[in-house]
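seq:
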Amino acid sequence: MINYFKAMQNNRTLSERITFYLTKTIKEEKRLTQADLAERMGIAPASVNKWMSGGTPAIDKLPQLCDILEITPNELFGYEQEGLPQEAIDLYKAFQKHPEYHNSIKKLLNMVILDIEN
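struct:
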């Protein structure tokens, strides 16, 4: 399913991908509600409704949205995760659920990325 999912995502616009992830998280997986998302992001519930209907959030909201939806910015923008070891990606996703470790994981992943590039 992941390969199909990635191929499907690459053909979508940013607003379509945001709508897809919101629908998946809110309606299919039922991990949170529109009201929960709005509260966690400090926005009006009408904004979340707008995003689910094809609107796009302000650019400064995208990192927070990715964290809440437990996806990477690359996934949101439809880019492949080439170059990053799968273990690093899995670790990042696992620790997104623990905000108290978030800064440490970001530093670790930056070290891994720098190590790959050199």
